[in-house]
Each structure stands twice: as structure tokens, then as C-alpha cells.
Amino acid sequence: MELKQLALKIASQYIGDFIPDNEHDxxxxxxxxxxxxxxxxxxxxxxxxxxxxxxxxxxxxxxLNVSFPFIASPSTQxxxxxxxxxQTQMPSIGAIVIFEDGKTAQGHAEIIESIQPESGTPxxxxxIGFNTSANGHASACARKVRVIAQLQNPDGFHIRGYIDCxxx
Length: 168
Prior knowledge:
Blueprint: H1 3-12, H2 28-35, H3 49-64, H4 76-82, E1 87-88, E2 96-101, E3 107-116, E4 124-134, E5 137-147, E6 157-163
Antiparallel strand pairs: 1-6, 2-3, 2-6, 3-4, 4-5
Helix pairs in contact: 1-3
């Protein structure tokens, strides 16, 4: 099994897990996930979208006995900047999509689970995101549907690019 496929499989095990509204970024499932691999050195209370995704890739690399392919960071934008040889503007299954909020340092990350259509110009990304909103909870692991055309405004929440470990 390829690293990206196994990381997706690991991430999918957490879909539906959420942090109760009276807690902040330190649910038991998240703490357990990070104990299995925390290459970004996440600390409870921090945003965790990229750290949780990287934990899934870390676990997959360990299980496959391959090198962890990323320079890890708990910041989505720093993670993107630190991995220039893995940057692409073309989405692929298992790649990490990096979002940016305007020209700020704020962002978000999700793992691409599927792309529609499968050939030609990608239109929709189906993703698994950590620290995202789902079922009325502000902080959860959930599947998301992202319409690429709606995420192109550089002054708003938009796709900055993709990090793809298969580019090594």
C-alpha cells in the first residue's frame, strides 16, 4: 500500500470524532492520535488541522517502514513554505490541500480523498479535514466537499496549493 493511501485510511478512522463545545482542542481522541505520532510537535490548545493530518502520514510511514516525507510544522502556511519541492497546483488523491485566508498567516489543511471528475479539469475535492466544522460542532474530523471554483478569491478563504509526497 502506498503512503498516501494508508494515511487516508488512518485519517478516515477519525471521521465523526469531535471536540465537545465546552473543551478546546484537547479531546481524548485527539490526544490519543497525537501520541501515535506528532511530528509537528502539536500542543493541546493549538489549532490542529495540519498536525493531525501529519500524524496520519507519520503513522503510515512507520507502518510501511519508509521515511516521513515532510518537514513538519503546526502552522499550515509554514508547512507549505517549508516543503517547496512537494508543492504543486494540481490536486491528487492523498495530497494535502493548503488553504489560505486572504493574505494573512491563517489557513487550513485537509487530505484529498477523491477528485471529481477523475480525469480532465478537477472541479470538486472530497477531503478529510481535522479541526473543521461538522454536525454543529466547530471542531471535528469530517468529510468535506470543496468546489474549487469557489475557492479562488485571493482576498478570501482560498486554495494556496497542494503538498504531494509522491513528488519526491
